[in-house]
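Lesson 9: reading folded outputs for more than one chain in a single document. The general rule is that every protein is listed as its sequence immediately followed by its structure tokens, and records are never interleaved. Here is the first one.
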Amino acid sequence: MFEETLLEGAVALAKGALALAYAGGFLEEKLFPRYGRRLLWCVLYCAGELLWSQVTSWEPRLNFVGFLPLGLLFFGLQDRFFVRDRWRGLFVAASFVAGWEILKFTASPLAYLLFSVLDAFMEWLVQQDFFLRAAEGGTLLTAVETAWRFWQIAVLFLARFFQLALFGGYLRLMHRRFVRRDYPLHFPESLFLLLPCLTVLGLALTLRLMLTPDESGLPGLLFERAPATTLLLPLVSVLLLGVMVETVTLFQHLAEAREEEQKRLLLENRVSEVQREVEEVQDIYADIRGLRHDLRNHLACLAALPRSAVESGEWAGYIDRMRVTVERLDFAYQTGNPILDVILHQSAQRAKKKGIGFTASVVFPTGQAIDAYDLGVIMNNALQNALEAAEKADGMREIDVRTYQKNSLFFLEVGNDFAGSFTPPPEGVLPATTKPDKALHGLGLANIRRCARKYRGDLDIAVTEQGGRKRFRLTVMLYPGAE
């Protein structure tokens, strides 16, 4: 009894270590001391497993649903040791528990076969005359009982080791086949991943019921009623593990295809932006041609002005008109970076054409480790979203942009009017796009978050309503020193 308890404790500790490594491959860790966190996780997991094992020894019927409390234990530990990610956490817990439960049916046939071999040997041995004569003194029987006990522990150890080895390989495959840790999981995708795990758990529960004692109290072993199951059960178990692994692989391919489609859409959006930039440049060239024509006229007029006009100051009017013409080519916003100047200029021109008010107070953070390209991606996506939302608003329509610094943090804020209703999503979740094809749109905020997290920052969304006017405000925080 003591040996079995010790073995189960070692198995529970090994499972705790595997659970920590598996969860760490999918979830973002909280700020805990690394070695202390690992030890505390393993101790808590091992204690939970042993406590539940003790409970099921008092009430064996609870063993049928043993995966539920152990799954809840795993899920609860995730919540304390890792950053909360509900759907990903559910998948991690379900795939872990399902893999362990179904692999029991690869270990139990192995243990049954080894015990059957020993039973057959012992049955043959007790029928031999030399054994009966040697056993008359009782010493041999004691030695045989000791050997039998040792063989029992050895068989249990081999079965558990075999199960743990297969389980570790399965977890490694699941982690390697899954997409990046930062890939966002939503309900439909999570359901696609969870259904095979739940199916495997249901089959494991069914098989466990088939292997339980019958009403007469005798073991209703499926292996005795159908010997072929000693080979079929391990085969089916491994195939079911393969189904879960291949489901994750298929999901990875679908996710990669979706990302490729998103990249294509981003490229198309970039082409559209280039086309708008070309139009802006064409407008600038048209202004330059107009300026050259106007300058010729101004010079001709100045040369033709009589002395009396010069003395009276009428020439000053020509100078003013020349200054207005030249100022048409100047960008209204001087941020200290040409990329941001162009983005603000283009956005202001688009807002003007649509009758939207536009104000900006933006200064590029010189002397800090922020790439102008990354800040340009953030501002361009934020202003595109703001323009699309403000265009649909009724009444007053305005967009305001500003940047500011607080100690080592750099902030970019974009506010705009909008129409309709908006409910802020849960923390850490981006708002869904209102466009029809939700899978291929709504990339602006995702791009903003990607660039912000490059600098250990993030984004925040706030909605206010006053006097029937609804305002949407996006705040992006960057930590330049973290690049």
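And here is the second record, again sequence then tokens.
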Amino acid sequence: MLFGKMPISNRFVSEVNNAEYFYDLSICFCPGCFMVQLENCVEPTMMFNEDYAFYSSTSEAMSAHFKNIAEEISAAVQGRPSPLVVELGCNDGIMLKHIAEQGIAHLGIEPSANVAALARERGVCVIENFFAAESAGKILGKNGQADIICGSNVMCHIEEINSVFKGINILLKPDGVFFFEDPYLFDIIKKNTFDQIYDEHVYYFCGLSISELAQRHNLQLVDMIPQNVHGGSMRYYIRKGNNNTVSQNVEHYLLQETNLNLHNINGYIAFKDKVNKICYDFTKTLREIKSKGHRIAAYGATSKSATLLNYSKVGPGLIDYVSDTTPVKIGKYTPGTHIPVKSHEHFIADSPPYTVLLAWNHKHEIFNKEKKYRQAGGKFITFFPKVAIE
């Protein structure tokens, strides 16, 4: 499927006349390994660098989620001699800070210097690097093998995925476990959440593709546990070898995926039509509201909204501004569409009659936070699985 020219999704520009980098966004499917991925990848250093504008800790719901992950890890390593926990893409230390507080040996691997610096301030041991087979060998020589290797919303970002899995084999103890969670392809197709498709997300995983990928590297998918974050994520548990005890969850979800035809092209044929219907209804709704003289704001200057806004060709003529709480985004403009980003305080004072919920994956948290806005008559515009005013 072709989405056309897209900007770097998390590169908010200081001036509307800034020269921006654009690439062709399209996804393709491999019938051999069942992987869905970007056809054209952006150079990683263009996305993950000292200007990276995503901080995990800005969401209370995600903070609670990562605390739960830390508690699971702590329980899993209890009683193990000198355990080591490694997190790929530790961001600002939102999870590993809890591991550090317990005195458990750990290492965060984070290529973006600005968020890595925040992790260090929180007491997290972190190195600025991309994880691959080569870096895994260096970590092994300095730190030894890991009892647990984990990652959240990071594996789908890494183009050299085979090198990552080679690195897992190098760094993981024979009885260790590697687990990670990412947006679930089944949910993306089922719910039409196409804004999950953008430059940072190179891969769109399901159990079928992960099982094939693991086998290729003498690893085995042993469990799958759905996570109620980012609009529907799946956590995959992987161990070394091929004689492990496999949870019934794996068979259950692989069957669901097969029933949705995620193992062949038929599962994806109708997806584009559904995407185009949402974009048509979305722009039509905004134009109708604007024609009546109403202001429209948006909530959450998210990376994924770059796909929705640019593919729908929605700019400042339809959305007056985007409200966000991330300091480095406020005062800038959305990539490609150049909608101004303003503070949450501005949103509260302005109280626009309509607000597009770009951060739809945090809907429950946001609706609780903005009770007064809604009680005063403010309405949110949502767009998955279809356009609605709530």
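What the second record shows: The CA atoms of residues 126 and 153 lie 18 Å apart.
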